[in-house]
Amino acid sequence: MLEIKAKVQPAVATTAAAPSLYAEHRKVYPKAVQGTVRRVKWLILALCLGLYYVVPWLRFDRGPGAPDQAVLVDMHNARLYFFWIEIWPQEVYYLTGLLILGAIGLFMATSLFGRVWCGFTCPQTVWTDLFMQVERWVQGDRNARIKLDAQPWGFGKLVKKAITHALWLLIAAATGGAWIMYFADAPTITRQMLEGTAGNQVYFFFALFTATTYVLAGWAREQVCTYMCPWPRFQAAMLDENSLVVTYREWRGEPRGKARAQGIGDCVDCAACVNVCPTGIDIRDGIQMECIGCGLCIDACDDIMQRLDRPRGLVGFETWTNLAASTAAAAPCAPGPERQRAGMAARRVPRFIRARTLVYLAVLTTVAGVMLGSYLMRTTLTLAVIRERAPLFVRLSDGAVRNAYVLKLANKLRDETQYALVLEGPRGLTITVQDAPLDAQGHPLIGSRADGITQWRALITAPPGLHLPESVGVHFRLLNAEGHEATSTGSVFLGPKP
Ligand code: SF4
Ligand code: SF4
Which CATH number is associated with domain 381-494? Predict the structure, then answer.
C-alpha cells in the first residue's frame, strides 16, 4: 500500500486562542492545456456525455403493449429494461451482481492504473470539466479569470458571469431532464414537461438533479473530490508499488531551478503543472489525496520540456518500483542527459499480472459467469405458492379437512398462457381452484396474463376417513398444452394431530 499525503490546509484563526477547524477555500483557476492526455479526456467526456444524453432516446421494439424505450427503469410496473433484458423485482440480485462487478472493476482499474476512474470517467470530473470549459469560453483562460474576479463589479463582469451561470444552468437542466427520461418514456415526459402537464414529482426530481449538477460541477468542483467523496480515503488500499500513478520524476527534475542555470535538474520551476491542475495541487509534492490522476500536469510539463528541447516525461504515469529503480540508477550522474539516460534505462515494463490483480480478475470472472449463467437459465414462468395461515386448516361438517393456498403465477412472456394444475401428494387429496375451469382430465386450468402476475386461490381437501400425518408435503405442477411440465413448486398440507 502506498502512502498518500493528505494536504493539511492552513487553519484560519478565528480567535487567538482557538484555531478554526474550517479550512478556508482557495478558488482554483485551472489553465487550459493541450496534449495527448487532454485529447483522451475530451474523447472520454464526449463519449460519456453523448451516451448519457442520447441513450433515453434509443428505441427497442419489445412487441405490443411493452415500452419501446431501450433503457428504462419503469417504476410504475416495477420493471427494468435494458434492450432485450427485462429485470423483474424478484430478480433484483442481478443489480446486486452489477454493483459487485462495478466495485471489483474499480478496484482492479485502481490497482493497475491508479485513479483513472476519478481522473477520466467519474461524473463529477466529466461535468466539472465541461463547466470549466464553458467558463473558459466566456471569461477567458486562467489569467483572465483571476483578473476578472479581482475586478470590482461592473457591467462587463456582470454580463460575463451571468452568461456563464446561464449556460451552466442550461447544461444542468439538460442533465436533470435526461435523468428523468431514464424513468419514463422520453418523448412523452419531455412533451409533458414542456406543456406543464407532468406530475409534481417529475418537476421535483428535475429541479433536484438540475440543482445538484449546477452546485457540484459549477461551485463545489474539486471540493467534492477532496472533502465529500469517500473514495480517495480508501483507494490507497488498492495501490501498490506496481500501480501506475501520475508522478513527478524527482530523480530527473531536482534540484529545480532556472532553465539556464548550471547543475540543476530538468524542472525549471515554471509552475505550469500546478496552473493546469483542477484541484490546485503541486504534483512535485508527491502522491497526494487531492490528486485525481487526471494527468493534465503531464501534458503541461511535456509542453515545457518540448519547448526547452528536453525529453518529455518529467511528469508521467509511473510505478513506485520504477521510480525507485530510476532514482538509484540516476543518483551517481550529474543533472543532464546522462542522468536522464541512466534513469530511464533502469525502468521496467510494469507488472500488470500480480496476486491482487489476479484475485480481482478471478472475482470478476466468477460473478460475471454466475450472472450470465443464471440469466441464460432464467425461466419465463414462475409459480409461488403461499399457504393461508389463518386458520391453518378448516374441518368441514362432513369431517373433511381443507387447506387454502394463494398461487401467484408470474409470466415474463408477452403472450397469455394456460396450464393444467396437477397436485402431487398423498392419494385421496383433491384440488380445486376458484373460478378456474377444468380440463378433460378434471385438472383446474389456470391462466397467466402476459407480462404480469396472476393470482389464484386454490383449496386442497382431504376427504373424511383419510388418515394423514399432521403435516404432509404436496407438490403443485403446471402442465402446458403438450402435457410437459412448465414449472412446479412445493408446499405442505396441514391437518389435526392423528
Ligand atoms: S496533480 Fe496532475 S494528475 Fe493530479 S489532479 Fe493535478 S493535474 Fe491531475
Ligand atoms: S511543469 Fe514541469 S518543469 Fe514546470 S514546474 Fe512542473 S514539473 Fe517543473
Answer: 2.60.40.10
